């Protein structure tokens, strides 16, 4: 039998167009199946932390508290999740869920969004942040100048001027309530020139710690401070001056002046001989009580006050205190029963009164009354204590004798 032989070439090229078409169709079906196959999804944490953005709050309120940052877990196609960067994620507070009627700390939910719609947030940690949402309040506060350093050696600051001298401070109610002072802090330069600066005021609490989150209106104030040579100033006492006389029977017990000393300035030749400054005269004519007088300071020619100030002289006035004897004051029995008569032995006592001289001089003898109390006594003879009645403003210093014999008898 002759051996069969396979013609490979003929087998390959036979129906070649049909075979190529079949292969092409198979490859198309394979590619379509790959394209239609759903990519594998993954859930994994984002590598970094996302800062919580400070949200807008309703008008008239302010958000207090540190927002911090959160961690997130993402889910989506592996390639999409792996391609997420920090700028694709935004963490915000859900202010709509907050209670605006609460001023105490409250937990507010954190929402995180992703820029890629194929990636979703499955977990936020922490899921809420503790904050306070408070109403905004405004308070006017006077501004004080504070020096951060001293002027150059040989100089000193003069009176500081502020424009304006008061600002309105706004912020959370709890923060505004902490304000103890508002300072405008200025810094002197190396040259001895007057200081003029625009300064942003700063509110501080009772411990001097700056309070964050507050605004001032206006935002800046202008501070002007003259820089003066110390060689042209001198501090001297203030000496009061009075004229006139207080009312008769009264005396001056004390005179004070405020301020007790002032600093003056001028050329060395003008201020060197000055050892005090006089006040204008306070008129005490007819005074019967204490009184304060606003008087001018009498500055010598060529001098002026280093810091402008007025002067107050206070005069204390009190009546003269003396004594006056009443040697024969008749003793009278009071509260005597009906149909009874009474005599005393002795019939008079000697009384010495103390008080303002003018009051004592105006007393009539009849205004000094000596009595014994006969309440509950019948006809008898017994010792009785003497009481003396005097007008208001004077006091009984001595009574001689302090007891008399009271004799009570029946009317005949």
Q: What can you tell me about this protein's structure?
A:
- This protein is mainly beta.
- It folds into 4 domains: about 40-135, RNA Polymerase Alpha Subunit, Chain A, domain 2 (Beta Complex), CATH 2.170.120; about 140-225, YbbR-like domain (RNA Polymerase Alpha Subunit, Chain A, domain 2), CATH 2.170.120.40; about 230-320, RNA Polymerase Alpha Subunit, Chain A, domain 2; about 320-410, RNA Polymerase Alpha Subunit, Chain A, domain 2, CATH 2.170.120.30.
- The protein contains 6 helices and 33 strands.
- The longest helix has 21 residues, at about 15-35.
- The chain is elongated and about 185 Å long.
TL;DR?
The chain has six helices and 33 strands. The protein is mainly β and 412 residues long.
Q: End-to-end span in angstroms?
A: 201 Å
User: Percent helix among the residues?
Assistant: 10-25%
Beta-strand portion reads over 45%
Oligomer: single chain
Largest sheet: 12 strands, mixed
| Secondary structural class | mainly beta
Number of DSSP-assigned strands: 33
Write down the overall geometry.
elongated
CATH architecture of the largest domain: Beta Complex
CATH class of the largest domain, named Mainly Beta
| Tally of DSSP helical segments | 6
Domain count: the total is 4
Poorly predicted spans:
none
Task: Return Rg in Å.
Answer: 51 Å
What fold name goes in the CATH topology slot of the largest domain? RNA Polymerase Alpha Subunit, Chain A, domain 2
The average pLDDT score comes to 89
SSE topology sketch:
Elements: H1 8-13, H2 16-36, E1 41-45, E2 50-53, E3 61-64, E4 69-77, H3 78-82, E5 89-93, E6 106-114, E7 120-125, E8 128-147, E9 155-157, E10 161-163, E11 166-172, H4 173-176, E12 181-186, E13 195-199, E14 202-204, E15 215-217, E16 221-225, E17 227-229, E18 233-243, E19 250-258, E20 261-266, H5 268-271, E21 277-283, E22 291-295, E23 297-298, E24 303-305, E25 311-319, E26 321-334, E27 340-345, E28 348-356, H6 357-361, E29 369-373, E30 380-385, E31 387-389, E32 395-400, E33 403-410
Parallel strand pairs: 2-5, 8-12, 18-21, 26-29
Antiparallel strand pairs: 1-4, 2-4, 3-8, 4-7, 5-6, 6-8, 8-11, 9-17, 10-16, 11-15, 12-14, 13-16, 18-20, 19-25, 20-24, 21-23, 22-25, 26-28, 27-33, 28-32, 29-31, 30-33
